[in-house]
Amino acid sequence: MKWHHVQENWSAFYEAIQDKWPQADEADLDEIDGDQRAFVTYLAELTGQEPSEVREELREWLTGEIPSDVVMDPIHDNHSISLSAKYVNEGEDEYDDDARFGDDNDGRDDD
Q1: What distance in Å separates the CA atoms of residue 17 and residue 105, rounded to the nearest whole number?
Q2: Is the pTM of this model over 0.70?
Q3: CA spacing 20 to 30 A to 73: which of 3, 22, 66, 81?
Q4: Residues 7, 37: contact at Cβ < 8 Å?
Q5: Which domains can be identified in the chain, with CATH numbers?
Q6: Model confidence pLDDT, tens digit, residues 45-65
């Protein structure tokens, strides 16, 4: 993932940040508000590491999974749907309801 994913959905990453850096405080994260430089500085002070070490650790962390709160965001979903347009036949709309295929209401009770 890229830093802009983190910055745009900052609070959704709190749990993932605290899993990686358990000593991170939510109030401090609120103040950082997705600013990467401030976050690196904060982690360097928090962990006693050099900023270069923190940046490397952060790069490794960014290769991880995107939290489900971010993946389930409608903006992310709509972007993914629009990217899928290349697989949709000409004349069809990738945003169309697929109920006509019979998988939306197959008689099973999902509750």
Answers
A1: 39
A2: no
A3: 22
A4: no
A5: 3-69 (1.10.1470)
A6: 999 999 999 999 999 988 877
